[in-house]
Amino acid sequence: MNAKLIQACVAAAILIAGTAEGMTAGGTFTRGCAGRDIQVMMMLEAGDIAPQKLNDAVRSMTHARMMCLDGQVMDALALYDQIAHSITSDWSLAGQGH
Questions:
Q1: Residue 16 burial (C-beta neighbours within 10 Å; 0-12, 13-18, 19+)
Q2: Domain residues of the chain, as ranges?
Q3: I need a surface site. Which of 18, 27, 77, 88 has the fewest CB within 10 A?
Q4: Using CB atoms within 10 A of its CB, is residue 27 exposed (0-12), middle (13-18) or buried (19+)?
């Protein structure tokens, strides 16, 4: 199992644990947040991303999840968009090198 897959599994475990804790505390994780979270997670798994950039993205995703749970859905979705843009811009730069 490669390191990226292990990191993605750890991130997914954090997502599940964080979501469960937030819901028991009275928070909600909206469908919009959940859908965007899954999209960005799939982008992270599919891309060839530097380890530091991957760690930063996972940290930002955790922050976005907490924002969703706190009811700051629009801000969280904007953060997910920033993460996605960062990932896709890295893909574009990597493609220019070939």
A1: exposed
A2: 3-96
A3: 88
A4: middle
Q: How far is residue 80 from each of residues 2, 9, 96, measured CA to CA in Å?
A: 25, 19, 25
* 8 token code pair: 């993605």
Q: For residue range 18-77, what is the model confidence (pLDDT) as tens digits?
A: 555 544 444 567 888 999 999 999 998 887 888 888 899 999 999 999 999 999 999 999
Q: What is the pLDDT of residue 46?
A: 85
Compute, in degrees rounded to 10, the torsion defined by CA atoms 45, 46, 47, 50: 30
Q: Which pair of structure tokens corresponds to residue 40?
A: 């960005």
Indicate whether this model's pTM tops 0.85.
Answer: no
| Look-up of token digits 């950039």 | 53
Burial letters for 63-89: b for 16+ Cβ neighbours within 10 Å, e otherwise? ebbebbbeeebeebbebbeebbebbee
